[in-house]
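In keeping with the milestone schedule agreed at the kick-off meeting, the structural modelling team has produced records for the first pair of proteins. Each record is given below as a sequence line and a structure-token line. The laboratory manager (R.T.) confirmed that both were archived under the project's standard naming scheme.
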Amino acid sequence: MSMDPKAFDDRLDPGPLLAALDGNGVDFVVIGGLAGLAQGSSYPTFDLDVAYSRDEGNLRRMAAALGEIGVTLRGAPADLRFQVDDQALRNGSNFTFATAHGSFDILGDIDGVKSYEGLRRNAKREWISGVEVLVASLDDLIAMKRAANRVKDQLMVLEYIELADEIRRQEAEEDED
């Protein structure tokens, strides 16, 4: 499934963000609402969430991409100095950024999944805003939403379960043919 950029809220333009990650060779998986939208969800999203590998080389590539994007810490005081580099990424794992293209969150620690490697292994390739990316599986999205356990997440879980069941039914029918 290829996603039309008009599927996103006006406050989010994920294409330039995904292109910067991809162009810098960052090892990442799209998670959150955008991953749900890519698989048929009807819930809107207002930010881009990605999980990323924490290996040293990837931290350097992520820092380069973030510098290219021009991120600032979302919600931080204007006078707070924050240097986006691999050392900062090494010292933390989950960051929320503001960008000219919308809110952008990167997560090195992901509640609900055992490991980034497992998340990546279960992910599927999708085109979002002209960039081919890995998108978290519906089963992993369900696990992450259950772990977050917010009211909006509980509603999304119900939809994601229906979507996952429909995909499994379609795959079973294709196997029978």
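The second protein of the pair:
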Amino acid sequence: MFTRTKTRTVHFDAPFTLTGLEGVHPPGDYQVQDDEEQITGISWLAYRRVATMIEVVAGKKKSLVQIDPSDLDTALDKDRVLSGQQSLNTTH
């Protein structure tokens, strides 16, 4: 079966937590990897996500931690709301 890894960068403006990660993580850019496998037996090219991992740094050590992609989406949505509220508070 053919697999591929897609890498993307996500940005947090505020500290955040994610299920599977210990503690609160600082704002900034984080690399996220989505592992996908090709779906066979259909007449078009399609993939399904089989794993999502985020790269975290603790001191000098980098590690990839598997996370639930819906938890990441929720954390990013929450960050956008918090960022919007912070910018509203600073304009008044």
